Each structure stands twice: as structure tokens, then as C-alpha cells.
Write the C-alpha cells for this entry.
Amino acid sequence: MSDQVGTITWISGPVVRARGSRLVGMLELVEVGADRLVGEVIGLKGDQMTVQVYEETSGMQTGAPIYGTGLPLSVELGPGLIQSIYDGVQRPLPLIEQAMGSFIHRGARFDSISREKRWKYTPKVKVGDEVKGGAILGVAMETDTFEHRVMLNPDDSGTITWVAPAGDYTVADPIAKLKMGKDEKTVTMLQRWPVRRARPFINRRGANIPLITGQRILDTFFPVAKGGAAGIPGPFGSGKTVTQHSIAKWADAEIIVYIGCGERGNEMTEVLQEFPHLIDPRTGRPLMERTVLIANTSNMPVAAREASIYTGITIAEYYRDMGYHVALMADSTSRWAEALREVSGRLEEMPAEEGYPAYLAGRLAEFYERAGYVNNLNGTQGSVSIVGAVSPPGGDFSEPVTQHTKRFIRCFWALDKSLASARHFPAINWLDSYSEYLEDVAGWWLEKTGKDWLTMRNRAMELLSEESRLSQIVKLVGPDALPYTERMVLETTRLIREGLLQQNATETVDAYSSVEKQIRMLELVLYFHERGMAIVKRGAPINLIHDLPVVDTIIRAKSTVTNEELHKFDDIQKQIDDQMGQLDAEYRS
Amino acid sequence: MSEVTVQGGQEVVGVARIEGPILVVEGAANVSYDEVVEIQDSRGQLRRGRVLEVGEGFAVVQVFAGSTGLSIDGTRVRFLGSTLHIPVAEEMLGRIFDGLGNPIDGGPEPLTDHYADVNGQPINPTARIYPRDYIQTGISTIDGVNTLLRGQKLPLFSGAGMPHDQLAAQIVRQATLGKVAGAPQTEGEEFAIVFAAMGVKNDVADYFRRSFTESGALTRVAMFLNLADDPPVERIVTPRAALTLAEYLAYERDMHVLVVLTDMTNYGEALRQISNVRGEVPSRKGYPGYLYSDLASMYERTGRIRTSKGSITQIPILTMPNDDITHPMPDLTGYITEGQIVLGRELNFAGVYPPVAVLPSLSRLMKDGIGKNRTREDHPRWGAQLYAAYAKTQDVRALASVIGEEELSDVDQKYLKFGRAFEREFVNQSFTENRTIERTLEIGWKLLSMLPRKELTRVTLDEIAQYYKGDDAAN
């Protein structure tokens, strides 16, 4: 299938130039050198082509051949993606390990999806049906509980002429035949899709359902909608990866695509070793059974890092097309941007800011725009939500990747080094973060919990920003100079910070808070504030409130009250009533 | 410099251009990217280099020993046809090598037919074992609050004039496999130390050599030395040569290898120099855009794999220029490594040893190596509580500097006392003091007991009941 299309004339790291055919296409997949390493054409000029190579080029020689494939860089889609771990160009890492041992050598070629494994398939169409692109032809059970909806390639349409009976099939077996115009086409469960082309849908829906992550600072304070895009920028050690892992574990999406893009090998291993043992609270199945991992660690070839983001998002879109909610984590988009920069530098392109190419913003926009809650071609609805980590050099948010990312996301979770230093996790700064989805998802909260979440959330934010103003004064004159009413604000915000915002990802009870628990906690803290304020206004000294035993109880409630025992909050509220009531009585006269 | 033997390969006489340590060689056909070359000057002296870029009829070559004395017509370049390999063998322990892996201790070349590519290969993430065994270093600020695990890469971020060398030497000397608090010490396993010096002064290398001698470990140490007066370009290879040996010892000889790399800042400067000479587009502070990937290609050569009992643990040392942690070298290092131990100038002035600035320090893997059945059940929350209390101390100190200590509330006064005691008793220990994990936990609880128990919201009530000894313990 591949003919020689050129001869290598120049090599510098992952970038290779060659001379040859003028018929090679832009972004065509090519095989480079005697080892036939995977590469992609990224520039054409006369008979010169520029290729980025997804594998290590050490030892490659000028004069070596380049072979064309006539196809763009694509991923394989079909049952078997779930529980897989791939490198940036969708090569299965476990097979590479079996074949090559513990280290990754060049020239590995494996099917991304097993051709041998059989899936229990049930057809959903019959002979004579008119089907359009994206139509669901049948379902295959990808795990014990996950229904993989086998779809027609979005570019095809026609009349069904043959349907395989229900049974066990591999992805290579025909499951249907289709008359397209004059031709008849055999359809299998496997399809290929070019990674740089977004999969089509009918139109976008309003994003008004929050992606629930069980993380209080995210769900309650800065929610992202299903189909939305969020960015987590932060200096090193501020907890980007821990936050991404928490979302990957607990988000209420049906499929998680986790892209480790230029990050640590041990982190991917942690996910690999931990997820099979963690149970999804919603399905009761191991978390691995809804997860696809893409691991292109920082020491793996840099061009494949660039591709890994597209590989991941294409897989995410494929599951979206089946009508599922998909959440995609990209850790870290900065490493991807650096891969762009490195390739751009080798091409000697004119740099824009900090050496990044001028098309950085365009590439980021393309990526984040592939998020969305959409009406699919087959009439189902599905979403892709993107959570992108950003690693700004020196923690400086004014650098290009953070700044451009901010333009294309609507939810910004700013990590803060000083919070991390004080071991306040998640170290998301509540004053620098924002979410533009608040109004959109307020209706969902009302319907789900029957409570006016938005008003309460805004009240808590108001107190927190009041705290920030007051702490400026405290820094100058000490807390004693403040009137009791203002010190009451500080008491409450301590409860908000330590009781609500801080969450321990490693503790069983605290790691995941249901929305019901979140709203009860918020309600409780605000109730404490209203009661306390009333008493303080009557002249009770603030230290009496500070010393109430219930303060400690509220702070510890996050790890003492499980998601199933929310009635315990009634007890705590009663304790507030009792203890405050006593004070109230004393100062009423 | 040791002899470099001339092997076969195509030879080109004369070079087209010499710029700093870079040669442009014309007229060579089918040169491989990254292959090793041997360069002979007009007096017959040999030096080595490698190919950085190849084009039609030309190749860009980096000369490790620098280009001093090379001439346009009098230079012969022989392309050796393979990437840079060094011999690896267990016998290399106890020996001293130059930055390219040639023996400089007067001993013979290592006898082995095992040669390995200095660039290594990335470890497949599916082949790794996630690190879980903690290393007891006997240093409270590490064992207690920034625990080091086998297979972790934990750098020391320091500054000129601070005792990072002493601290690294102390870690190397005292490191043993950690045990559950109270359990008897188990027998040590086979360990090795690989030490790589990049551009450090001879005194520093000598200091480490003496320290290894005194602790009786010298026969287990392989040293790769590229000192301050050695050719800077060689530094690009030095850590890679060291790690290549480490990989062999860990993954083929089942040893637990501790790799100390000092000083990575000098490495970064060598890389920047090459990049500048080649006219590459710089990113920050003149460093090349691929600095992150380049550093990762060394730091990621750490860890454990399923097919071997051994492990590689890395302690790179960086001096931060102007103590600036946002400088590209510490910054990008911090993004790759699993935490960092930061040394603080103020503590150093105050005479605290080791002057570990606890707040900016971090061990990412700590959570997986401590707690029940590993150290002690209260350890994780105890650590978080110490961090939170010490962070609060900093706020109180800032306030005290404005309104004066006398104006502080009672609780804040207690925090001030806690902070001082924390630095004097917990952080501070002697160069020879080897604290057990129990001792570290005990000191921590003693300090926490100086605070009112209501302030301790990170530890559980049970733990307070068991360990808290403060005035209001009874309430």
C-alpha cells in the first residue's frame, strides 16, 4: 500500500526534509527511513516535503527513502478502546511491552484495536433500512455494562442489503452490507477517522448540565457544564495532576479519556495501577472500565506528544457520537504547545511570543472548540467536556499558553502556590478562578436538590471576597481592630475554607462529595453565619462564637459525614441551634 | 584524556566552518543523525563529537572537547556510524571516569562486551512499578514531611554558598530502606551510588569522594566527573553516561541505585551554549525551546520496572541563579521531578542545618509511601498539620512585624513560639544525626502540642487523644 515518495535530504531531531513526489498530500501519513518510522507531512514546497516523525530519529541517514500511504494520520475506532493505554499515535503500550520489553524501541507496529477479540453484537437495523452517516447499526457489549453503539462512518450512507445475525464478532468481521449508489460496501465494527478533523454532528445544544466531579470547590463554586471547557493553570507542585486525577476518578461522565501529554511516567503508572481497583460510585464497576488512557510521557518522542491531544479528542468525539457524556483530561496542554514550538523552531519559522509559533492560538482554539454538548447525526445527544491543565513557566499566568487558553475556555481554575505550600488542597484560588456556566447550570441544581444553589454560592463568594478585603486590614493593624461583625465574617470564611474548600483526595469519605452533601454543607455554614451574626450584633464577644464546640464539628463534617448519612447534618444544625441559642438567650436582654 | 581508538567509517578531510564547539563538515554522504564522530587535529590528537544535524552533503557536528586548535584544512572527521555508546559493568563501581565515561583513575578500561547507548530508551509506562517503598534518610524535613521513595526523582534546589553538598552526602550516607515504625531494621539489599559532576569545582568532587570514603561506600560508587575546567560540551553527555550505567546496574543487576547529579544548572548552561551557537530560536532566558524535553530525557530515567528487583532513585542538585525558583532550570525541573527539596537562605543565615525551606518543598509520591503499614497511621495527617501550622506561623510573623509581637492574640503568640521551635528542633539537626521515623514523629507531636488543640483540624480526634500533650489536652 505504500510506495516510495521521496528521499531524505535533511534531519534535525524529529523534523526531516525529503525530496520527491509532488503528489504527496499535506498532513499525509508517511513512513520514514529504512525502519519505516511513522511520520506526518507538515510542509510542502515544490518537490520538497517536511515531515515530523513520531519516533526517535537517531541513526537515520540522508538518502534513506520515505514511503507514502495516501492517508492522513488517523485513529482506529471500535469496541476495545476502553481500558486501553496508547501512546500519542494510538499504539497499544501493553503490546509494545510484550514485544519489546520494558523499554520502548523504534519501529513498533501494532493494531490499535485487537483483531482477534470477539464482541457480543446485536444488530439494530434490518435489510432495506435507509441509513445515514452516524446511524447506529447495532450494539456490542464493550464491558459487562457498557453498550458500544456501532455506528456507520459519518461520510457513508445508503440502503442496508445484508445484516449479520446477533452473535460474537471481531472488529474485522462484516456486520452489515450497504448499497451506496452503485457500489456495495461491507461494514465492520472498525472505522478510521483522521485525527485532525472534528467528527461531524448536527448542531450544538445549550450546555446547562454541570459535570459533577464530587469536588466541592469545582461543583459548588466553579462548575463546568457538560460539553464545556475548563483550564487548570498552576505552577509546579500546586496540584494540577492530583486535581485532574480526582476529576478522572469521580466525574459523572460515562467515558473518561485521560491524556498524559509530556508528563511523568510514574503518574501514568499510578493511574494504570489504581483505576482497576477503584469503584465507580455510579455503576459499581471498576473505574478502568470507563477509561481510555493516552500516555506520551515527557521522554517519549516530542512529535507524538503533539499528536496525542488529537488522538484523545477524536476518541472522545467517537463516544460522544454514540450518545454518551465524555470527559477529556489533557495534562498538560503546555507540553503540547512546547512540542509545537520545538517543531516550529526546527522549521525555522518566525516565532511570535516566547518562541511559540504564531499559530499557537489557532491550534488551541481548534482543540477547545471540539468540546460541546451536541445533537448527533443519529439523533442521540452526547457531550465532550475538556479539562486542560496548563503549566505556566514560573507560575506566571501572563505567558502565552495560559493567556490564549483563557480566551477559549469558560471556566478557569487558578491554582495557587501559596495555598499548596500551606497544604490547602485543592489549591484552587477562589478569588482568581471563575466559571461562566453559573447561570446555565443553576436550573439543574434547583431541579436536583430543590435548593437555590446559586444564591447560596454567591453569598459564600461574597463572604470570601469580604474576607480578602478584611485580611488586608488585619495585616496592617491586627484582627483586634476589627468590629465583631467583621470578625464574624472571618469566623465563617474559615469554616468555608477549611470545611468546604479544602478536600482531601486521599481520604475515603472526603474524596467524593455528592451534590446533596455539598449543598447541605454550604447551607449549614451559611446558617451558622446568620445565627452568629445576629448574636454578635447584640454585643456578644466574638471569642464566644469562636470557642463554640460546633465550629470544630462543622470543619470535620467533610470527613465524618458520608454521602449516605446526610441526616447527620440535621444533628449538626441542632448543635448550632443549641449552642447559639444559649448565647442568644444570654445577650437578648 | 584517554586514548580514543580509531575505528572504521568514512573520513572527511577538512571542515567548512568552525563556530564555537560546532563544526560544519561538507562532502560526507549518508551521515546518520546523532552518530558519533572522531575528530583528528593537525597534530594527530583525537577528540570525539556527535552529529546534531544532517543535510545534503553536509553535517553539523558538536565537538565534546571544544574546537580549540582545530583548523579548516587540518581537521579530519571520521564518522563512526553509530550513536554514542559506553561500556557498562558492575566492575565500574569504585572507579572514576571523565564526563564521557573514560577511566581517569589510572585503572584499566572496564572489561566488558556490554555497551549501551547513552541516550537510553523511554520506559514503557505499563512496565513500571509505581514507587511505594520509602527510604529513611534520617533527616526529619525529608522523612517526616517530604518523604523520599525508591524510584523517585527528588531534586535539591539550592543556591550558591548553601550546604547542598553536605545534605546530599548525608542523604547518601544515611539512606536505608524505610520500615514500619517500631519494626526491627532489616538487612540492607545490594545498593550502588552513581555520582555525576557537571562543571562543579574540584573541591566539590573531592568532598563527595571523601564523604564516600568515610562512610565506607567508596567501593559501591561510580563517579563521572566533568569538572569546572573540563570542556563544557562534554557536560551534555556526563549525566547520560552516569544514568546509562545506573540503568544497567538497576535493571540488569537488580541493584538499588541512588544517582546524584550535580550541578544541573551547569548542564543547562552547556545546552544553552550549543543552542546559541547553532542559532536556534530561544525561549526563556536564551534557553532552547526543547529544554523541558531534554531534561525529561534524563530525569525520567528513574523508577522501577516489573522485570527487575532494582530501582533508580535520582537526587539532582541545582543551584538556582540568584535564588530564583522561577528561573527556567529549577522551574522546568520542578515540572518533571516528583517534588523538590528547597534550601532557604534565611534559615541558613540563622544557622539552621539542613536549611530546608519546608513550605516550598514537596514530595509528590510521599502519600503513597507513608501511613498505616508503611510508617505510622497518623503520618499523613500529622505532616499536613505541621505544614498548615508552619504556614500560619508565616502569616503571624508578617503581622507581628507590623503591629509588634505584644499586640498579637494569645493563639498567635503560640504560633510564633511554635514556629521558632519548629525551626530549632525539627528542621535543625546535626550533620551526623540519623533520626528514626518514630523520633521525627515524636518531635512533631511535641511541637504541635504547643498549639491549642482546637487549631489542629487536620489530624483526627483519635490522634489528638493519643499523641497530643498540650496544656488543654484534657478538654
About this structure: The radius of gyration of chain B is 25 Å.
